[in-house]
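A favour, since you know our structure tokens better than I do. Go ahead and set the record down below.
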Amino acid sequence: MSLLHIPSNAIEWVGLESYNGAAITQGISAVPAHVVFIDLFQHVDIRVNTADTIIIHNGATAARAGNVTLIW
């Protein structure tokens, strides 16, 4: 996935959803929005939180652990 941060305006993205139901994902948002699932069962996703931040969201009923690597 590639993210483009437009400071104080929005985050734009394009990428590929996780294996289960893999599909291209793309969009732009300044408000909370799903970006991409990063686990097999599509419970854990990266989301836009604000125009300047992203969050990792766990929608599963149990704890999940992993790594997200940002390269810039």
About this structure: The CA atoms of residues 20 and 52 lie 29 Å apart. Residues 2-58 form one domain. The chain has a mean pLDDT of 94.
